[in-house]
Each structure stands twice: as C-alpha cells, then as structure tokens.
Amino acid sequence: MQKKILIVDDEPHIRLLLEQTLEHLEDEGVEILTADNGLDGLELIKTERPGIVFLDVMMPGMSGFDVCRTVKKDLNVKDVYIVLLTAKGQEFDREKGMESGADLYMTKPFNPDEVVEKSAEILGVVS
Q1: For 67-113, what is each residue's pLDDT tens digit?
Q2: How far is CA 68 from the centre of its chain?
Q3: Are 123 and 30 in contact (CB under 8 A)?
Q4: Does the global pTM surpass 0.85?
Q5: Nearest alpha carbon to residue 3 among 25, 18, 23
Q6: Which of 4, 21, 59, 69 would disulfide-bridge 50, Cβ 3.0–4.6 Å?
C-alpha cells in the first residue's frame, strides 16, 4: 500500500486544516496530495493509489458519493480506504455513504486527533 493521503474538498480552508492536521505524518514518509473537486480526486485515486482518502461529500461536478461509488464499485478498487467527510450528520446521509462503498463516515467539524489516528492506523505508521 502506498503511504499517501489524498484530501479532496472544494473548501480551501478544510483542505488546509486537514493538511496541517496530518503534516507531521510526512516525517514517517507519508505523502499528502490534495484535489479541489471530485473529478480531479478520482484521477488522483487512479494514478496515485493513496492508502487513505478524505473525501468531501458536497462538491460541484462530482460528489463524494459518486467518487466513492466509482472507485469501490465500478473500478473495484479495494485497497483504498475512503473516509467521507460531510456537514450532514443525518442517518440517511450516513447510509448513502456506506452504500456508496465508504469505509468510514465523519461529520464536520471533525476531531483532528481522530483523523490522525485513523490515517496512521490505515497506513501503518506511528502518529
């Protein structure tokens, strides 16, 4: 598995917050990649094969649900761990996320410690 983290979010401040939260993992050889929309995120998943993806649900063009479904169901990629991030905490959205193939569903505002712990666990590095 690649020691890469991909952050896909159309909100620049969320991308920056996640990058800052995870940047100390770079000391463990982890590469952090970002995309500001679902289509670019999908291309990066195909070419870079990150170990874990933090994927915003609500994005223009291609939603996080669509990206996740494409990766997990259409492309049948099993070795990429996808965390859907959303401001919507309703059960319906959680179920839709899991149906699209997400491995984990986190609501914003997220706990930075939880983000780091999950990333380190999936990538097999020390947090």
Answers
A1: 999 999 999 999 999 999 988 767 777 788 888 999 999 988 889 99
A2: 9
A3: yes
A4: yes
A5: 25
A6: 4
Sheet holding 104-107, edge to edge: 31-35, 4-8, 52-56, 81-86, 104-107
Geometric angle at alpha carbon 84, from 90 and 99, rounded to 5°: 70
Query: 12-22 vs 112-123: helix axis angle to the nearest 10?
Result: 60
**What is residue 27's DSSP assignment?**
G
Question: How far is CA 57 from each of CA 13, 28, 67, 91, 125, rounded to the nearest angstrom?
Answer: 16, 28, 9, 14, 27
Domain residue extents for the chain: 4-123
Q: 4-123 adopts what CATH topology?
A: Rossmann fold (3.40.50)
Task: Report the pLDDT value the prediction gives residue 93, as an integer from 0 to 100.
Answer: 76
